[in-house]
Amino acid sequence: MSVLPRIIELARQHPEIAALWLYGSRARGDHHKGSDYDLAVVFTNWEKHPLTRRLRPEELALEWQQECSLPDGRLSVVDLSIAPVPLGWSILSEGRLLLDKWPDRRMRAEQRIYSMWELDYVHPQQGTGNP
């Protein structure tokens, strides 16, 4: 099984994955043989402890990288629920949704990005009293 179908299968089997995206060069189609796999996920639950929340996608990347027999550094995972807004916007606008197990969780994470993008980048001055 090639890498991308294997990743989708791993995400499908993972009980805490709600949605999975591919973004970056592989999603755009301008990748080369050595390009890495840039993935974004939404988890089904919110980790309360900040360090656990931060490390969870990195641990998942290491696990999937090993499962797919990829060299170190060839797979990265971002949690869309905590991703910086510009990165989240890029994932949603240029990425490919590969798996959608929990549409309500996916839509909640997407809405956070869209709302923050609008507040921070489309209408940054609105409501501040500045011209």
TrEMBL record:
Q: Which organism is it from?
A: Zobellella denitrificans
Q: Which residues belong to any copy of the Polymerase beta nucleotidyltransferase domain?
A: 7-101
Q: What is this protein called?
A: DNA polymerase subunit beta
The family database entries (NCBIfam families) matched by this protein are listed as: MntA_antitoxin
The family database entries (PANTHER family) matched by this protein are listed as: NUCLEOTIDYLTRANSFERASE, PROTEIN ADENYLYLTRANSFERASE MNTA
What domain of life is recorded for the organism? Bacteria
Q: Which InterPro entries match?
A: NT_sf, Polbeta, TA_antitoxin_MntA
Task: Give the matching Pfam families.
Answer: Polbeta
